[in-house]
Amino acid sequence: MSDSATPATPVTFPPAFLWGAATSAYQIEGAVREDGRTPSIWDTFSHTPGKTAGGDTGDIAVDHYHRYRDDVALMADLNLQAYRFSVSWSRVQPTGRGPAVQRGLDFYRRLVDELLEKGIKPAVTLYHWDLPQELEDAGGWPERDTAYRFAEYAQIVGEALGDRVETWMTLNEPWCSAFLGYASGVHAPGRTEPAAALKAAHHLNLAHGLGTKALRSVMPARNQISLSLNTSVVRPLNPGSPADLVAARKIDDLSGGIFHGPILHGAYPETLLEATSSVTDWSCIQDGDLDTIHQPIDALGLNYYTPTLVSAADPEDKGPRADGHGASEHSPWPAADDVAFHQSPGDQTEMGWSVDPTGLHELIMRYHREAPGLPLYITENGAAYDDKPDADGKVHDPERVSYLYGHLSAVRRAIADGADVRGYFLWSLLDNFEWAYGYEKRFGAVYVDYVSQKRTPKSSALWYAQAAKAGELPDPEGI
User: Among 179, 274, 311, 409, which has the highest number of CB atoms less than 10 A from its own CB?
Assistant: First the structure.
């Protein structure tokens, strides 16, 4: 197994390493019309015919809103030390502006109290793609005002939970919010406007900066503020080809530099601005924006699933774009029609994504160099497989066990190579609503029967529980 120790040699982690799992609000909560919650863009999108597999919605999802106590007890049984969840903006602030609905905040207060009672560290993500529909109706993320509305929302949640929650993430995967939401249209709100997508990316960056300042104004200084990026690990098909190297640089800028440039370094890459000049003049960047975005952060979250393999496009090849981000006639990569995407070698998950732990090691070491001294967390990593209960009701998922073993071994290797990785959040705790894929793709370590809502820990959950308890990786063949 590449990038990992042999099963006979346990891979040990630092004693303070944090073992967690992650979810997001729209994917698990359900209860979309309860306690004052109003529609988000994902409610609208999922109820639009043809937008999700089977017409699936998150109306019920896995009913976590009503079952959170049982779910937290399950986390404790699995030896989780931390749980990363997101807050539903429209549950807390239904119109995206104005005062909070306390009934909505009370759910998160109860959830945090339950976690703390079980000795599980809560980690809050403020935005995991579910913009209140009223803000989208006013223009959404391409509108500058949305960033200021986010800062107001961040302050509300920070005031409510900041005394008990020490770990905060402003945004999850802003690349998906901007480019799948506003360029390719495969995610909510389903728009296909490349210039608007680039504006959305800038305003998401601005929201992170403004939100960070808002959180710091109302929370104890001990609290850690970060965000989670899904920067692509971009590899040229032919490393000796100058044209392929240019293609890789373009996609690297659009997936990573557009966010970590201003957030970590206070500037967008010049190569990004030049490459996208045919789409936008970047006049959305106003004086002072880059200073606002470039707030000190306490850590950086990295989400990784699979590497990206690209080349310069063959002008004669008009085939589908195989970038792993859903089928659409519209590209999520503005001004990158001259780039071709290729399937990376190796085994594939149910998403069609190649299994390659070397990419996670590469990503960690990149940010170890990009932001020396900044603690790193793997805030998402996992795989979808076609999991089914056997005749005894047990769910065996050896492919996911192998996936986790390989990727956690890559994390440990990066730590040995000097990277300051403080923790790992498995994606995902529970099978759930997988966005446009509906309920077809199962990422959970815990199997959910969507009719009965019964939870059944898979083999991977039991393996991960052993790892979390021992602080080392058990033999993946031993479960």
Answer: 179
